[in-house]
Amino acid sequence: MTPREVPLFIDGQWRMTPDTLPVIDPATEDVIARVAVAREGDLTDAIAAAERGFALWSRTGPADRAAVILRAAAILRAGIADIARDITLENGKPLAEAEAEVIRGCEFLEWDAGEAVRDYGRIVPSRPGIRYLVVHEPIGPVAAFSPWNFPMSQPARKIAGALAAGCSVIMKASEETPTGVLHIARALADAGLPAGVLNLVFGVPAAISTRLIPDPAIRAIAFTGSTAVGRVLTEMAGRHLKPALMELGGHAPVIVCADADPVAAGQAAARRKYRNAGQVCTSPTRFYVDRALCPAFTDAFVATAAALRVGPGAEAGVQMGPVANDRRVAELQRLTDDAVNRGARLLLGGVRLNRPGYFFPPTALADVPDGAEVFSTEPFGPLAVINAVDTLDEAIARANALPYGLAAYGFTRDAAHVERLMSGLQAGNVSINTLEASVAEVPFGGVKDSGLGREGGVEGLHHYRTVKTVSLAQP
C-alpha cells in the first residue's frame, strides 16, 4: 500500500511540506502514511491566520458560532464508520472503541456549542448612580496540543471549548495518529467555519511549542499529555504570563471495600482496565482490595482479562488491540520485570506476544512491593496491580500516596464508605460503583501532578475567556 499524505491545514488551505514523518500501523508495523512537518514559515503563517481568524470569530454571535459547531458535529456523526476505520488503522484500538470515540468527540462539540449561548456575565448590585457589569470575552488565539491515545476526541474537546468561547485555534495534534483531527478540520470547514479560525500543524513537538507559546499573538495554552512535558510547557507559558490548561498523567487507584461484590467489581475492572489497551490517563491501574475479598476479586479479574481477544483492531471480535508503539512495549516489559524481580506474583501476561505488531497482552501483578517502579511510573498500557489491604483507611492512604490525582474509583454498597471515599480520595474525578470518569457534561481535570484547569461541563469554556469588569457611572 502506498502511504497516503497527511497535510497541514493553515488559513483554510491544505498544504504538504518537503519533510514528512512516518505514520505506522501498530498492528502490522507497516508505514501507512506520511505526515507533513511544519517549517518555521508554516508556523508563522498559522499564527498570522489565527490572528485574522480571531478578529472575525470573536465578533461572531454566540448562536452563530454554535450553529457552525453543531453542523460540524452532524457531519462527523454521519461519517462515523470512515473516521473509526482511520483511527483503528493508526491507533490500533478495536473498531467498536474507535466508533465510541467519534461519538464522544461529537458530544464534546455539541455540549460546548450549547455553552456558547449560555456564556452569562452578570450585573453586580451597586449604589445609585453607578452600575457594575461583569463581562466575559474570548481570550485570543489558542495553542492546543493533543496526544495519540484518543486522536479524535481529545482534539475535539479542546477545539470545541475554544471555538465556543470565540477563540481561534492552532492545534498541534499527534504525528503518530493524525487523521482523526483531519476529519474535525474538514467537518468544520464544510460547516462554514471561516478560514484561519482553526489551523492544524504537525511536526517536531519541541520546535512547534517553542515557536507558538512565546509568540505574543498566542494568548492561552491547552495541553493533554505526560506530566513531564506538561511541566516544561507550563513553565514556558508562565514565563510569558499565559494561562495554561494542563490535563496530565494519572495512575488511578481503585478501592474495593469490604461490603462490595468482589466478582462484579473484578469483572467490571478488567473490562475497563484493558480498554484502549490501557492507554488511558484515567485507566484503573492500582487495585486496593479488602483482604477477605481479594481472592474472589482477583479470580474474577484474571478470568475476565484472560478471555479478552487480542488482535488487530479491524478484525471482528477483537476486544484489545496493540499498544501504540515499540516504546510502550519496552516500558511495559521493564515495569513488569522490575516488579517480578522484587517479589511480585505475575498472574497473567507479562511478555510481548510473538507476532508482528506492538502487542503486549493483558497483564496483572499481585502482591507488588511498594518499591516497585510500577507504583511510581504510570504504566500507560495493559498492566494492572492488585494488592490486598486490611482497612479502608489503609486503602485511601495508599491511593493518595502518589503525586498523581486525575481519577480514582471505589466499589461499595455502604453509605458511610461512599462518604469516606468522596471526601478522602485526592483526585479531580472520583467515581463510585462506576469506572466512568469523563463525560461532556461534567468538568474534567486533575489535582497535584495531574494538571491544572478543567475541560467540559459549564467550566469548560472558562480557560478560553477573560473577565472584564465595567464600571458605568451616570455622566
Total helical elements: 13
Strand content: 15-25%
**CATH first level of the largest domain:** Alpha Beta
Uncertain runs are none
CATH topology of the largest domain: Aldehyde Dehydrogenase, Chain A, domain 1
Distance from first to last alpha carbon: 73 Å
Helix content: 25-40%
Specify the CATH architecture of the largest domain: 3-Layer(aba) Sandwich
Please give the radius of gyration in angstroms.
Answer: 23 Å
Q: Give the overall shape, derived from the CA principal axes.
A: globular
Overall mean pLDDT: 97
Taking strands numbered 1, 2, ... along the chain, how are they ordered across the largest sheet?
15-16-17-14-13-19-20
- What is the count of distinct domains? 2
Can you say what the CATH homologous superfamily of the largest domain is?
Aldehyde Dehydrogenase, Chain A, domain 1
Structural class: alpha/beta
DSSP, total strands: 23
How many strands, what sense, and barrel or not for the largest sheet? 7 strands, mixed
Protein model, in words:
- The chain has 475 residues and is α/β, with parallel strands linked by helices.
- It folds into two domains: 4-248 and 450-471, Aldehyde Dehydrogenase, Chain A, domain 1 (3-Layer(aba) Sandwich); 252-439, 3-Layer(aba) Sandwich (Aldehyde Dehydrogenase, Chain A, domain 2).
- 37% of the residues lie in helices and 22% in strands.
- It contains 13 helices and 23 strands.
- The protein has helices at residues 40-57, 62-78, 80-91, 95-116, 153-165, 179-190, 205-212, 227-239, 262-273, 294-306, 326-341, 392-399, 415-424, and strands at residues 4-6, 8-10, 13-15, 20-24, 31-36, 122-124, 130-138, 142-145, 169-172, 198-201, 220-224, 244-247, 252-256, 284-290, 345-348, 363-366, 383-389, 404-405, 407-411, 429-432, 447-448, 451-452, 465-473.
- It has a seven-stranded mixed sheet, sandwiched between helices.
- β2 (8-10) and β3 form a beta hairpin.
- α2 runs antiparallel to α4 (95-116), α4 runs parallel beside α5 (153-165) and α9 (262-273) packs parallel to α10 (294-306).
- The longest helix is centred in the N-terminal third of the chain and has 22 residues, at 95-116.
- The model has no long low-confidence stretch (mean pLDDT 97).
